[in-house]
């Protein structure tokens, strides 16, 4: 029973929809708590094999709810480091560490932490009318939610610095051209395509997909040799799954494989 998110599980897919449309789904404390709880349920569920994250209304997420920040003259300044430590960093870690594909359907503007939450997901689709803004610099802040790590890796340092320091709005088509997202789709097709993608992934060897995610996420901090060792270790785990047995068996018998995610 959530107030600021819509959450349900169907056909192996958990759908988490941010639901404060009047505030462009910006985060207040209650929404943080609800998202954290829903992601905990996703992780603990034996049924869920893919997560779809999206937003209600015309925005995906406008980052922190600025109405919750009292910066009036004379007011005690909020400790934003505490907010990052308690809320944004755990959220990003939950998404990155979730052992399943996380699909993000960016239905509208994604600004501030909202943009970087999308970039922390595994496969990002965006509506053609959606856009991405590193809005932090406009209010004197630093990109957070992993943005200073993710952006240079997605688009290179030159573009990352311009995005972070200019805070310009980047269209979904531009984001696709620059490799910031997987694909840009027509507005009316976004939710169906994202759900279809999530449902497809949920029928795949999802333990293997989780290991792929682990390997690729680790690659940025590893040397080539460390990465080779990691691939060996993860392949050992993948090679012990029932899905590997099923995949090879189905190939040899020229039939469609039925994967169980274990
Ligand atoms: O504080 C900490 O804990 C540290 C962590 C920070 C993480 C961050 O995310 S910092 C960055 C915070 N976000 C922003 O600075 C973005 C602010 N919003 C905007 O710049 C614009 O709203 C957008 C570019 C996203 C969209 O522009 P537009 O013209 O399409 O819509 P709008 O008219 O500006 O917004 C529509 C409504 O949403 C409006 O309310 P109203 O006037 O209709 O009652 C606006 O106030 C509200 N809204 C949009 N963003 C936020 C917001 N309300 C509160 N907080 C917001 N972030």
TrEMBL record:
The keyword Metal-binding does not apply. Pfam families: ECH_1. One of its GO terms (molecular function) is isomerase activity. Keywords: Isomerase. InterPro entries: ClpP/crotonase-like_dom_sf, Enoyl-CoA_hydra/iso, Enoyl-CoA_hydra_C, PaaB1. Its EC number is 5.3.3.18. Gene3D superfamilies: 2-enoyl-CoA Hydratase, Chain A, domain 1 (3.90.226.10), Lyase 2-enoyl-coa Hydratase, Chain A, domain 2 (1.10.12.10). The keyword Plastid does not apply. Belongs to the enoyl-CoA hydratase/isomerase family. This is 2-(1,2-epoxy-1,2-dihydrophenyl)acetyl-CoA isomerase PaaG. The gene is paaG.
């Amino acid at each position: 029973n959530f107030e600021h998110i819509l959450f349900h599980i169907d056909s192996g897919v958990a759908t988490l929809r941010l639901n404060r449309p009047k505030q462009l789904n910006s985060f207040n404390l209650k929404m943080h708590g609800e998202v954290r709880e829903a992601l905990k349920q996703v992780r603990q569920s034996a049924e869920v094999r893919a997560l779809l994250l999206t937003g209600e209304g015309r925005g995906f997420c406008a980052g922190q709810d600025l109405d919750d920040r009292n910066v009036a003259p004379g007011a005690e300044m909020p400790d934003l480091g505490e907010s990052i430590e308690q809320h944004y960093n755990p959220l990003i870690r939950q998404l990155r560490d979730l052992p399943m594909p996380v699909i993000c359907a960016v239905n509208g503007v994604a600004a501030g932490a909202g943009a970087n939450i999308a970039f922390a997901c595994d496969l990002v689709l965006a509506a053609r009318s959606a856009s991405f803004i590193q809005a932090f610099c406009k209010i004197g802040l630093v990109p957070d939610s992993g943005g200073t790590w993710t952006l240079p890796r997605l688009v290179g340092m030159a573009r990352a610095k311009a995005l972070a320091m200019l805070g310009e709005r980047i269209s979904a088509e531009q984001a696709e051209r620059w490799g910031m997202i997987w694909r840009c789709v027509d507005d009316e097709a976004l939710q169906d395509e994202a759900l279809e993608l999530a449902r497809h992934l949920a029928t795949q060897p999802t333990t293997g997909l989780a290991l792929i995610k682990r390997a690729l996420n680790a690659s940025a901090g590893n040397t080539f040799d460390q990465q080779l060792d990691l691939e060996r270790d993860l392949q050992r785990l993948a090679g012990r799954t029932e899905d590997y047995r099923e995949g090879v068996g189905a190939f040899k018998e020229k039939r469609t494989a039925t994967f169980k995610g274990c």
